[in-house]
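Hey team,

Filing this mostly as a record. A colleague (T.K.) asked me to run one chain through the structure pipeline before their review meeting, and I want the input and output archived in the tracker in case anyone asks later how it was produced. No errors, nothing strange. Just documentation.

Input sequence:
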Amino acid sequence: MKVAVTYEDGMIFQHFGHTQYFKVYDIADGKVTGAQVVGTNGQGHGALAGFLLSGQVDTLICGGIGGGAKAALAEAGIRLYGGVSGNADEAVQALLAGTLGYDPNVHCDHHDHEEGHSCGGHGCGKNCR
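Output structure:
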């Protein structure tokens, strides 16, 4: 199993389509056996599903994510745990323990953010859930 987390400075980056890095965890027998931070090479939104698939990732933990990216992940067979925030390593441990809090209906349907804005449960009024 390979789990990718949208990643920035140890934390879960809150907008899937704008993430510059993933932390990818190798999992065996319910434990993390290795992890590395990988750059996205400037790819964004739906193209990131192909990027993850080429890295043999089968599970994604992220914050906000748009409908097109969700559809691309589903088509690629990548399990999505969205609406998650906090420390990336702790989120993966929670996933393995079966205690990860996530939102199966997470959706971010805007792409007109001002610079520095991020999706997540922050009440910006731009329909992030």
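Quick notes for T.K.: Confidence is low (pLDDT under 50) at residues 111-129. The longest strand covers residues 31-39.
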